[in-house]
Amino acid sequence: LRGLQVVEHCCSVTSLQLGETMPNIAKDMDTLSFRTPLGVCAGITPFNFPAMIPLWMFPVALVCGNTYVVKPSERDPGACMMLVDMLREAGAPDGVVNVIHGAHDAVNFICDHPDIKAISFVGSDQAGQYIYERGSRHGKRVQANMGAKNHGVIMP
Q1: Chosen CATH of 36-145 out of 3.50.50.60, 3.30.540.10, 3.40.605.10, 3.40.50.1370
Q2: What is the helix (H) or strand (E) element at residue 122, kind and residue range?
Q3: Helix (H) or strand (E) holding 60
Q4: Which of 81, 57, 35 is nearest to 144 (CA)?
Q5: Helix 2-10 crosses helix 52-63 at what angle (to 10 degrees)?
Q6: CB 146 within 8 A of CB 129
Q7: Residue 4 has what pLDDT?
Q8: How high is the mean pLDDT in each 10-residue block of the chain (156 residues)?
């Protein structure tokens, strides 16, 4: 259900993507912001949340105007494949979301390919540090959520 909550939010995100206008911030000066797609983005997902994490990734990328390459965990790729099949049945054009399978070589492909502009990763610290270092070395935006647990702040 957590993954579907993100999909539900994505259905309303288009109004948030309009950008902002702030007129008269100074004499004869206005500011405008434009949100533009990056192009091809990619996600590398963990084995322990095979449906939720892909749903945190590709729906957001799509509504922001990007295409997506997702690499599910080689340990349980079935849930991700089912999600992409459902996306296709819902009418998404071929090539909007693509799935690649594999382990180390598939990760290196994502980190190295010049057309992929951003990577989202959820998984272990060791893999995340590797993906962050290799992907950012190639000029990609890398989001690495590593070793996630339920964090808390304890106050008096």
Answers
A1: 3.40.605.10
A2: strand 116-123
A3: helix 52-63
A4: 57
A5: 10
A6: yes
A7: 85
A8: 85 80 91 91 96 94 95 96 96 96 97 98 95 97 85 80
Residue 45's Cβ-side half-sphere holds a number of Cα atoms within 13 Å equal to 31
DSSP state of 141: E
Q: Parse the chain into domains and list their residue ranges.
A: 36-145
Judge whether 123 and 50 are in contact, CB under 8 Å. no
- Report how far apart the first and last C-alpha atoms of the chain are (Å, whole number): 34
Predicted pLDDT of residue 16: 75
CB neighbourhood size of 121 (10 A): 27
pLDDT the model gives residue 97? 97
